[in-house]
Each structure stands twice: as structure tokens, then as C-alpha cells.
Specification:
Elements (H helix, E strand, L loop, with lengths): L2 E6 L4 H10 L4 E7 L2 H13 L4 E5 L5 H15 L2 E6 L14 H29 L3 E6 L12 H21 L4 E8 L5 H13 L4 H10 L9 H12 L10 E4 L7
Parallel strand pairs: 1-2, 1-4, 2-3, 4-5, 5-6, 6-7
Helix pairs in contact: 1-8, 3-4, 4-5, 6-7
Bound molecules: nicotinamide-adenine-dinucleotide.
Length: 256
């Protein structure tokens, strides 16, 4: 029987890596993204390899769209087994100069988007009556806030809070809720962050990236596939007794 995994922000980066990994465990993937073009590319590539996948447009900040995503994906691909709240945005700016519209949009996408995703997935799981898995994208910045990333850090602290609260409430319905905390993963988001920080510090991007590498015990950045492995584990039967947790996937940057 098909098991459906909805992955938000799956048009590129870590979300794409998660979609590419989960198909290997037999999931049909709803490749959900605000960018329909990239979502369609990812879904087409997976289908060309013989996997089940379909692209969906969603702005996770819009609660109605998130609920519609779950409804349509279930109608198209079968019962929901896993919902990955991966979509997120970031910007680099000083606390006092952060533009209010950007701050509000960031909270709407990262924090409220995850909230709506948990709600929509949990309601579907309850309807199906067989439990389910929810996995959220937090960050190292959700443990120790980053300078120049005040709103982002708060949103990721908040996602850890949502993960714990949802885990406590939903355990009775056999729904587990966990989070992954990537460190430095080479994606378009990270490219943009490095570029902006380098500019602020009057450094080259190479210097900025070398500074970051010094913080990683294993001495190398992550690929999206490294994070995807952890997501696949949280989704696996072996992780059935783990809930409310956030796991560092950072090559040894922070030790909590
Ligand atoms: N890359 C890193 O180093 C890193 C580190 C820590 C945490 N994270 C987190 O991992 C997640 C993925 O990051 P990434 O590096 O792959 O980012 P990315 O920018 O490369 O990709 C994010 C994807 O999300 C989509 N998206 C953005 N806003 C959306 C919305 N409102 N609705 C639906 N889709 C939307 C984008 O179109 C894009 O396809 C994010 O939550 C991010 O905060 C990333």
C-alpha cells in the first residue's frame, strides 16, 4: 500500500534531498513548494526514475493552502504517513534595522507555516486512526541565536517549542513529532547567507566559508543528503519510541 509523505520546500535544497531519500523507503512524495516550477522539476525527475511523486503549489504561511495541500495529496496519492515541515526562509540583517515586513513574513513562513503544517497533518492522521510522523526543520540557531539572524533564530527556537508541545499532545494518537537541526548545508539559502555576511564583514565569500568550516569538528559542510538521512531515520519504524526531540545534524558544531 502506498504511504504518502508530504515534504514542504521540496523544490530545492534540503527538501529536495529529503524527497529523493524518502522515495527509496517506498514513500509516494507530495513535492510541495511555493515555486511550482522547481517542485514540478523534482517530481518529474522522481517519476522518471520510477518513483511516485507529484508537485503541489503551497505557500505554507497560508493555513487554507496547507490544509488544501493535505486534502489534495491524500486524494491523489493515498493515506498520509509522514509530513515534513521543511520550508523556511532566512534573511541577514541587524536586529534594529530589520525591515518589519521581512520580519513578519519570516514568522509567517517559518513559525506559522510549521504550526499550520502540524495542525493539518495531525487532523489527517487522527481521521485515518493509524498514527503518523511529523518532522520539522529547526536549526542550530534554534539553540543558540545567531547575530544578524534575530527573527530567524526566534522562529527556530519556536519550532523546537512547537515540536515539544505537539509531541506531548499528539502522542495519545500515536503521532510522533521531531525536528532536525542542520548546521551548514550547502544550498541556495546558505549561499545567500554567506554572500551577505561576507559583505557585512568586508570579507570574500571564500574567507567567510573558511571561518565557518573552523567551527565544524568534522571539517566539512553538509550536503542535503546528510540531513535527509536523519529525516529518513526519524520516519523509520526504528524511531517509533522517539518524540519531541531535535537532533543536531551539524558535523559537530554544537554539543548540547
Ligand atoms: N541550509 C542550511 O544551512 C540550513 C541550516 C539550518 C536550517 N535550515 C533549514 O532547512 C530548511 C531548508 O533550507 P534550505 O537550505 O534547503 O533552503 P532553500 O532556500 O535552499 O530551499 C527552501 C525551499 O523552500 C521553499 N519555500 C520558501 N518559502 C516557502 C513557502 N512560504 N511555502 C512553501 N515553500 C516555500 C523555497 O521555494 C525553496 O524551494 C529551512 O527551514 C531552513 O531554515 C537550513
Amino acid at each position: 500500500m502506498t504511504k504518502l509523505a508530504i515534504v514542504t520546500g521540496a523544490g530545492q535544497g534540503i527538501g529536495k534531498g529529503i524527497a529523493e531519500r524518502l522515495v527509496k523507503d517506498g514513500y509516494a512524495i507530495a513535492v510541495a513548494d511555493i515555486n511550482s516550477e522547481t517542485a514540478t522539476e523534482v517530481a518529474n525527475k522522481l517519476r522518471n526514475k520510477g518513483y511516485q511523486a507529484k508537485a503541489y503549489y503551497v505557500d505554507v504561511a497560508n493555513r487554507n493552502e496547507v490544509f488544501a495541500l493535505v486534502k489534495h495529496a491524500v486524494a491523489d496519492l493515498g493515506d498520509l504517513a509522514l509530513y515534513v515541515n521543511n520550508a523556511g526562509i532566512a534573511f541577514i540583517d541587524s536586529f534594529i534595522d530589520s525591515d518589519p515586513k521581512r520580519v513578519e513574513r519570516l514568522f509567517d513562513v517559518n513559525l506559522k507555516g510549521t504550526y499550520w503544517g502540524i495542525q493539518a497533518a495531525a487532523k489527517q492522521f487522527k481521521k485515518q486512526g493509524k498514527g503518523g510522523r511529523i518532522i520539522n526543520a529547526a536549526s542550530l540557531a534554534g539553540y543558540e541565536a545567531s547575530a544578524l539572524q534575530s527573527a530567524y533564530s526566534v522562529s527556530k527556537f519556536g519550532i523546537r517549542g512547537l515540536t515539544q508541545a505537539a509531541a506531548k499532545e499528539l502522542a495519545v494518537d500515536k503521532i510522533t513529532v521531531n525536528a532536525y537541526n542542520p548546521g551548514i548545508v550547502r544550498t541556495k539559502m546558505r549561499d545567500a547567507i554567506d554572500k551577505k555576511i561576507a559583505k557585512i564583514k568586508h570579507e570574500t565569500i571564500t574567507q567567510q566559508q573558511a571561518n565557518c568550516l573552523k567551527e565544524i569538528a568534522l571539517g566539512r559542510e553538509a550536503k542535503p543528503s546528510y540531513v535527509a538521512e536523519v529525516v529518513a531515520w526519524f520516519a523509520s519504524s526504528g524511531a517509533g519510541y522517539v518524540t519531541g526531540q531535535s537532533l543536531q545534524v551539524d558535523g559537530g558544531m554544537r554539543f548540547y
